Amino acid sequence: MQWVKVLGGVVGAAALLGLGIIVGHFAIPKGADSPAPSASASQDLDLKILQTVMEQLDANRIRENLRELSKEPHLATSPRDEALVQLLLQRWQDPESGLDSARTTEYEVLLSFPSGEQPNRVDVVNSTGAVLFSCRQSEENVTGEQGGPDVVPPYAAYAPPGTPQGPLVYANQGSEEDFKELQKEEVKLQDSIVLTRYGGVGRGAKAVNAAKYGVAGVLVYTDPKDINDGKSLPNETFPHSWCLPPSGVERGSYFEYFGDPLTPYLPATPSSFRLNSDNASGFPPIPIQPIGFEDAQVLLCNLGGKLAPANWQGGLGCDYNLGPGFRSNGIFPEDGQVNVSVHNRLELRNSSNVLGIIRGAVEPDRYVLYGNHRDSWVHGAVDPSTGTAVLLELSRVLGTLLKKGTWRPRRSIVFASWGAEEFGLIGSTEFTEEFFSKLQERAVAYINVDISVFANATLRVQGTPPIQSVVFSAAKQISAPGSSGLSIYDNWIRYYNRSSSVYGLVPSVGTLGAGSDYAPFIHFLGISSMDIAYTYDRSKTSARIYPTYHTAFDTFDYVDKFLDPGFSSHQAVARTAGSVLLRLSDSLFLPLNVSDYSETLRSFLQAAENLLLEQHNISFGPLVTAVEKFEGAATSFNQRIATLQEGTPDPLQVRMINDQLMLLERTFLNSQAFPEERYYSHVLWAPRTGSVATFPGLSNAYSQAENTGHEPAAWAEVQRQLSIVVAALEGAAATLRPVADL
Amino acid sequence: MQWVKVLGGVVGAAALLGLGIIVGHFAIPKGADSPAPSASASQDLDLKILQTVMEQLDANRIRENLRELSKEPHLATSPRDEALVQLLLQRWQDPESGLDSARTTEYEVLLSFPSGEQPNRVDVVNSTGAVLFSCRQSEENVTGEQGGPDVVPPYAAYAPPGTPQGPLVYANQGSEEDFKELQKEEVKLQDSIVLTRYGGVGRGAKAVNAAKYGVAGVLVYTDPKDINDGKSLPNETFPHSWCLPPSGVERGSYFEYFGDPLTPYLPATPSSFRLNSDNASGFPPIPIQPIGFEDAQVLLCNLGGKLAPANWQGGLGCDYNLGPGFRSNGIFPEDGQVNVSVHNRLELRNSSNVLGIIRGAVEPDRYVLYGNHRDSWVHGAVDPSTGTAVLLELSRVLGTLLKKGTWRPRRSIVFASWGAEEFGLIGSTEFTEEFFSKLQERAVAYINVDISVFANATLRVQGTPPIQSVVFSAAKQISAPGSSGLSIYDNWIRYYNRSSSVYGLVPSVGTLGAGSDYAPFIHFLGISSMDIAYTYDRSKTSARIYPTYHTAFDTFDYVDKFLDPGFSSHQAVARTAGSVLLRLSDSLFLPLNVSDYSETLRSFLQAAENLLLEQHNISFGPLVTAVEKFEGAATSFNQRIATLQEGTPDPLQVRMINDQLMLLERTFLNSQAFPEERYYSHVLWAPRTGSVATFPGLSNAYSQAENTGHEPAAWAEVQRQLSIVVAALEGAAATLRPVADL
Lengths: 742, 742
What we know:
The structure is a homodimer.
Chain A: H1 3-8, H2 13-27, H3 47-56, H4 59-69, H5 79-92, E1 101-113, E2 121-125, E3 131-134, E4 156-157, E5 165-166, E6 168-170, H6 176-184, E7 193-197, H7 203-211, E8 217-221, H8 224-227, E9 252-253, E10 288-291, H9 293-300, E11 337-341, E12 345-358, E13 363-373, H10 381-404, E14 411-418, H11 426-434, H12 436-442, E15 443-448, E16 458-463, H13 468-476, H14 488-495, E17 497-500, E18 504-507, H15 518-524, E19 529-535, H16 556-563, H17 568-586, H18 597-612, H19 621-646, H20 651-663, H21 696-707, H22 712-736
Helix pairs in contact in A: 2-10, 4-10, 10-17, 13-17, 18-19, 19-22, 21-22
């Protein structure tokens, strides 16, 4: 059944809204502590309310939100960022459409900015030091929005200051393999400047890898092949298409961890202990600076040395050579060098989160969280304002029902607007540190909607397995944008699918890395999390991400003209995320299907067996048993829920089941599992170096054992990781068994 | 009001018991999963049931339990230890008086035993190596119970094998200060054998401290001054009094951590990853062997060198000299040396816990745990069988009510008999590792009754502040043994009291270290815990502990004749612990008073301020604020409970409050706080080196800063520890606020 058909049955709901406002405003107690005595312990999801919410989520209001949010650049902690804090507070405190309460929490965090006085520079100089060529220091003012003091010049946040100079080398994506290849080709890296292109590995990794080879400085650019499907001419790019203009530069954080760099594991309150920034870790070891492909072309197309491998070639219209230094027949002298001047500064700044709360009627101590960051690099129309525009519309619709007295969720809902995400998920991480105990005890799930629309082809969801079922339920009842007549679910399955051993062909839900604010929730706190967006038709573009990502071209018009004219994809995301939110906050039984972890565990097990088969006497018996125990416990658990649902379960029975559902994800945490990894403690989703999707600790330990020539200590770590996984799965299974069994 | 008066009102309860058995046996469903539908969500503590339990706890049955339990030596994993596992299972599976279910969990753990073939020896040898004197290899068979193959010879568990030889030095208690004193006196320690007396520092610390000075081997003995109030003659000691006979030797574990040494943080299942025992840490670095004071006298009274300081002197009837070597006019040649031959072996053994469960009627997913270890060093009548005898009687009385159908607790009760405690709390620690997630989510409290009767003067309770109120409530309603007519509470306050800023004069509840199986529950899991016993009149003895502790003289007759003739102190402990257990399992609102943490925090704060006042710009403002926030939140929280108790709160409201009560203790855990300390993560109760009772991390960091000449890094750690405490208190306060506030 599709959402559009469900809607047909609802008549007059909108007409009732206005009338209810006055009644609701005076009749509903505000700020009362305990649940209203009239709240029924059996309160369940109300499908009519769900329908009303779906109807009222308005594409045009989302568009107007986006216009306001992206009107000006709002870099973290900038005056405009603070103005948006006030905008959010105002919306969430609105007497007609606000929430029960809203507040800010402020943290004093370490950010990194380019110097106002000394611009970062990239120059080609000759042997006497004369400047022969300079890269742009800002993007071209194509639409009138790329100039002015609020547009932060392109830079690599947290890159250390320095003015290295040396012959230029092309290092592809700056991966470990790329540098090994250069070494193999006997390209001298010591004291060189390497030019890398975005992609392949994380930003910071390019500098970390380079430094190991004695490289003095790093440049990074976006290749038209990777971002523009090859297009690179001004008239092929924005504002003529969605493609990145030649002067566009991707900004970004080059910090290797997340959270405030100076206060790991502690909330960054003003009085908190802070590391000396010299003792802080995770910053790039050498200067690094991003440039546009217009400038990269000048450098790269004049490079000398051997021809780079075929898969290192790009879309700049010339052969890419390795260097070092320039070619003899180019525009630069062969001994010309590149000088990189980075003058970034670390600064302690106050960054705010905004929290808005709807008190649960029955179980106010159960929190369903929904958040997005607020800060952008420049105007940030797509990133993050497409998400915030949806957040504001969803909170408006729910707030209006709340203020009218039409609805109050069973559980509490917490809306959040995070600060300083672009610098490393800082606001959300500090939140999880400050609210650690409460969240660990009470958080049901975290829904993240960062960029809500990358493109308008299909839904894309990342999350932990238990959230699959609620997302599917939501997506099946909402119609996809466009004229296909398909539900979001049926459209989705055409683009991303997999063959499930349990369900057959289903849309594939991706896994959660550390790309947005869900990271501290899932990795540090073990809260079931998800990220929801609309995205590309991969048959139509191979762009690494939407082309103007983190540039001054990510503006309202870009979204309005190219990403989602009509904002129907925004509306689709608002409906999907809103439906998921309501199902989580209002269903009597939490709609988390823990049994859906079984498929993941089974596939991780098979991959681990293939990887490690008969190696060093690794016995998989205990792991096989643990997976089987989990499968059995989860199946029986679901049967018990089904039986309870047939009857009229008492409130405590439901609560006990829901506690098991809520806390399952927590059981996968082990603070001893990855002592080297900051925050990561989820034994199934920690970072994994190998390419095989399996238990990350096991995979990493195995890689280490392979790389260190099979030292006994390395194999002992493989065994230790195996035991950690077994203990986690046994513990998880145990929590799903009947609660009186111990 | 005293318990004895309450009892007066109950007539005929006992008569009903027999009748109920048949009804109960057939009428109550066994092993059903969900709470019986008839269970009332408002089920509260039934004072009549409580009275019945108090009445039925039978001193003579406890005595008979003790006789059976201590009949034979039952060293961990010995055949008799396994036989007692069966005894416990049989009792807990008894159809008339058993629990809902009982089972064993087995772990493969690393223990340490003396060699069967090569006895450990301590000899005095002359310069040609001829043996001039040998210490006893076993205790004198005074009562016929000190001989035979099941009596393990005295040894220091986990001491490494070795046969060091050297001149003898007396090192008092083997503390760091003691070795500094010897160094000051220029006593050569390198390659010496040092003789130490028990007390002052932990067993293992004596060897650790000695090894730092190049000492080759360590002896340890029990001085009559420390254990016998000076008495040392055979006719003054057991079996003629409770005093330790001259040949008695305290055995014990010298392992510095707790839990299985090879599987830290992992349950020691057969397939678990194990450290190589060479890589395991926490074992004594050099051989160490305990001896009796009869032998210590021969060594110490013949020692040469300077006279030891006054507070190093003891009760052996001679001047204690420092050495090195023997005196000129003694029985040994001056160059005589001491040879210590230790042949201990590490062995992997299977150790069992026994778990017995009573399913909760209303909230089966809330566990009140009650446990004691089962293993002893020899017969272990006092340690641990006085506790197990009480455990069996309490479980019999409750089991009988259960099987009759008279009673089922609101919450689940878990009884536990831990294995291998004497080697380092191994069974209980492995349990907390295996059941980590369940316990963290669901455990209400842990009650430990190890040695239940040290002596018969007064109750002695150690625990975290929230358990104070429930212990007081119980103790006020039970009459103390003897003819005083006082309640246990009023008797207690005469021996141990303090002036509370809130309550005035109250009995003082001690803090929890790592002396028994509560350690992993409070330190690793953050579960409110307590240890309950009857103990000494300190005006009548200064014995460090009951004199036959860990010797072959700790027998049934010892208890029956000297510690608790008539077993009325046993009964008092059974009633107190039983009442506490019932109140925790059955009260509608959990009887944990979180507000009682305020006094602790306030006193820790004051001590910290005194310690650190105006040092290195340490600002206490944030800590003061955090303490105040906690106080305010706890007070308001208690008011909300009081208000709810006046009305008829709905089941979910009660559950939410109880969750806050249960989980408060968890909020003090921080796995990043003490990275060097195995398992310790409770920021208020971790080990503290300084003598001032304050926040341990802060205190330890301060000591470190003082000792390292005020290095900036050390002061940074003080600041970090301060922030950890502040974050924990802020988090704790936050969880006590109204749950919808976030």
